[in-house]
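Private note to self, pasted from the team thread so I don't lose it. Backbone tokens:
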């Protein structure tokens, strides 16, 4: 897209936001126009989805309202769950699909999936993101697998796709319907990682860390063994979830590193809005993990993606316990100014309002400007890798 066309698109999106006409424009032009350019690549990578197919599915949505948006993606998720029931004995009838349109696990026989995947061993992590059954990873694993290998691979990929579709349905949070989709995505992911982790030689711990009336619910994933492992604390952004980070990271199960995956304060399951005080949440996480017997407190790094990269840069400036940090796509100062808001779609603005607890656009501007890191740059003393 040329600079001129991109500028016109951004101005159009902002005009729709200011006039509250996004819903009408999306009905005519499709929801995809109002989403970041990387939206398709992001979720296709998470779920091992065909990018063109996912782009077509996105173009088929003509509204961001819950009934249309969640209904569309929930239906795709349920199709994937039905496929699991069709290929893997033991899952028949495992998922309830009531008239409300949601899908709930009724104590499904997850042991059936674990047993089916056991022959694949460490190839399981590669299979999770394989887009086609003819992929090299599938063939390598299939040579060692049982006659039911195709069914197991199909079930695994369908489960990952269902988790992904429910997460897209939850984007960007804030409403009851989106939070229901978030809960379904997270519930299925918890079952998946409990199965896949041990198969690839990892120990998975779920941690709940209470901090000043709020709670961090994260996954600590470590190599098996008694030695103390270096740790990377990883956080994502405005509408990202733990499962979005964890599924691709399982491919690096043999790195020898531990990772703690957490969502950004103010999003989804948190009780309180994000603010400058949220820095204390990250400090509390670092403090608690520093005392974990399986982690080396002298080798802790911090990785942030998107808005989470803001916190990576901030923690690099304020934490004495970090050895290094990575900030991927960090909003630091310019993004928090009025001119930096040009081109941000209405749905993202609403997500920012929900996340920060703002009561108006003016209030949102004040809260975001307070997050500027301009005065913090000189305080960063550890190696910081900045990716944009």
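Design output:
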């Amino acid at each position: 897209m040329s600079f001129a066309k991109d500028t016109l698109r951004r101005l159009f999106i902002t005009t729709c936001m200011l006039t509250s006409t996004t819903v009408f424009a999306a009905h005519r032009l499709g929801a995809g126009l109002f989403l970041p350019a990387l939206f398709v690549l992001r979720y296709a990578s998470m779920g091992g989805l065909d990018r063109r197919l996912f782009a077509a599915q996105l173009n088929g949505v003509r509204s961001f309202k819950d009934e249309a948006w969640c209904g569309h993606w929930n239906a795709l998720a349920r199709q994937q769950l039905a496929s699991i029931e069709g290929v893997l004995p033991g899952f028949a009838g495992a998922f309830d699909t009531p008239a409300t349109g949601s899908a709930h696990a009724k104590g499904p026989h997850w042991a059936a999936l674990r047993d089916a995947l056991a022959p694949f061993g460490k190839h399981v992590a590669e299979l999770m993101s394989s887009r086609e059954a003819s992929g090299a990873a599938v063939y390598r694993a299939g040579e060692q697998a049982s006659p039911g290998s195709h069914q197991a691979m199909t079930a695994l990929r369908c489960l990952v796709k269902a988790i992904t579709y429910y997460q897209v349905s939850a984007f960007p949070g804030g409403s009851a319907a989106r939070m229901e989709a978030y809960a379904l995505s997270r519930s299925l992911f918890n079952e998946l990682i409990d199965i896949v982790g041990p198969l690839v030689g990892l120990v998975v711990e779920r941690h709940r860390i209470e901090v000043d009336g709020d709670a961090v619910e994260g996954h600590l994933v470590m190599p098996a063994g008694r030695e103390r492992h270096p740790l990377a604390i990883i956080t994502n952004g405005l509408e990202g979830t733990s499962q979005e980070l964890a599924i691709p990271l399982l491919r690096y199960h043999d790195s020898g590193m531990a990772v703690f995956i957490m969502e950004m304060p103010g999003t989804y399951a948190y009780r309180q809005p994000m603010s400058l005080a949220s820095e204390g949440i990250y400090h509390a996480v670092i403090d608690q993990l520093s005392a974990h017997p399986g982690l080396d407190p002298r080798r802790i790094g911090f990785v942030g993606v998107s808005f989470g990269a803001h916190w990576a840069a901030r923690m690099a400036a304020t934490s004495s316990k970090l050895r290094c940090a990575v900030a991927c796509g960090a909003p630091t100062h310019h993004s928090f100014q009025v001119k930096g808001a040009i081109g941000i779609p209405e749905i993202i603005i609403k997500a920012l309002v929900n996340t920060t607890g703002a009561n108006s656009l003016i209030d949102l501007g004040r809260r975001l400007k307070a997050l500027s890191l301009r005065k913090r740059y000189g305080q960063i003393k550890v190696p910081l890798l900045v990716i944009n």
